[in-house]
Amino acid sequence: MLSYLKLGENLAHSPKVILMLAAMLFAGFFMTRLTKRLHLPNVTGYILSGVVIGPYALGLVDQETIDHMDFVNDIALAFIAFGVGQYFKIITLRQSGKKVIAITLWESLAAAVLVTLSMHFLFQFSWPFSLLLGAIGCATAPASTIMTIQQYGAKGPFVNLILQIVALDDAVALIAFSICAAIVQASGAGTISAGLIFKPIFFNLLALLLGLLFGFILHRAVDTDRSVQHRLALTIAIILALTGICAAMDVSPLLSCMVLGACYINIGGNQKLFDQANRFISPVLLLFFVLAGARLNLPSLLTAGAAGGAYFLIRIAGKYLGAYTGCRFVKTEKSTRQFLGLALIPQAGVSIGLAALGQRLLPSDMGTLLSTIILSSGLMYEIIGPACAKASLFWSGAVKTEKTAPAKTPAPDRLSPSA
């Protein structure tokens, strides 16, 4: 009798979950109709739609359902990381030289260090909270910047530098977050021993090796005479298998999936496979961002207060000063030094996913605060980001006149690894 009642509950719950998924997809779509008129990125619309239908507004999606959909985060982040891996072509990195890597490290790590130190010493937050927030501060969401570049037909060395940096930026954030997460997990056990330190390192190294192995398997499995559907099915299966193994080892799948993508592309993989994976995962990423907005705890915005505002401003300062210093270090042109940082302000996508992971590593109240800071500031970054990108293009001389490029319409704001 009990089993029958439980089965009835599950059957009653399934239509509810399915309807909520439909509501999230509809809400994300319809909100972009509004944000497009305001010239805002689609990501902003998805997050806002999640806030509207979430438990703190209309309540169309309840907290219980949100709590049981963490798997959407894991799948979305795995595909995001896989897509980031395509930018690690050895040939391209050799052509770009050390300058791009140096500037990327300066601008990303400067933001991380400034955020970490300010959160700990100014606001007296714990080191685990400050480290995770600082690591998330590394990430940049270049979608709105790239859209602005396309809109105004901007070309030249300054634009090429922006595109190269944003391709590497999220990778730095993934690596920094993985390192900080390992430190937080070790310190959370109370006493720190050699075993606690080396165990996460061992499992992360094992995950990286698995990423390499799965990269070779992916190449052998899909780069043969197979149909598009079978190639896509095998790709999804391999990514999900790697993600599941990492989850079983209690290791973030971010780095291993990034290595998977990098290994595949460097051993002769087909670029079209990444485009096919992006098209498949687009609805999942839409759900990912809507869920992120639904998780935004509106009452906790008051709690975030000064800390949230400080994070918003300090990260901008870190990005700008880091980019300026990095450009001076590698001796770029003056205009590049002055205006590159303005193009690196937006933040969404990877940062939201990392906030969801960080929320699991911290106590409930601090995890909620971390997620609230990232989500609320992400909305603000996506609002001011396009204007700042436009200013950097005009002031640097990459665009000479206000007239937009007539022969080129902006590409659709599709969700990509760098969204």
Can you give a write-up of this model?
The protein is an all-alpha fold and 419 residues long. The protein contains 16 helices and no strands. The chain is globular and about 60 Å long. The N terminus and C terminus are likely disordered.
Architecture blueprint of SSEs:
Blueprint: H1 2-37, H2 42-53, H3 63-67, H4 70-85, H5 90-121, H6 127-136, H7 143-151, H8 157-187, H9 194-222, H10 228-248, H11 254-266, H12 271-295, H13 300-330, H14 334-339, H15 350-361, H16 364-396
Task: Please supply descriptive tags for the structure shown above.
disordered N terminus, disordered C terminus, 16 helices, 419 residues, mainly alpha, globular, 77% helix
Morphology: globular
Please describe the biggest sheet, giving its number of strands, its sense, and whether it closes into a barrel.
none
Continuous helix count: 16
H-E order: HHHHHHHHHHHHHHHH
Q: Give me the count of strands.
A: 0
Structural class: mainly alpha
- Low-confidence parts lasting 5 or more residues at pLDDT below 50? 1-12, 404-419
Beta-strand residue percentage: under 5%
On the 0 to 100 scale, the average pLDDT is 79
Helix coverage percent of residues? over 70%
End-to-end CA span: 49 Å
Question: Over all CA atoms, what is the radius of gyration?
Answer: 21 Å
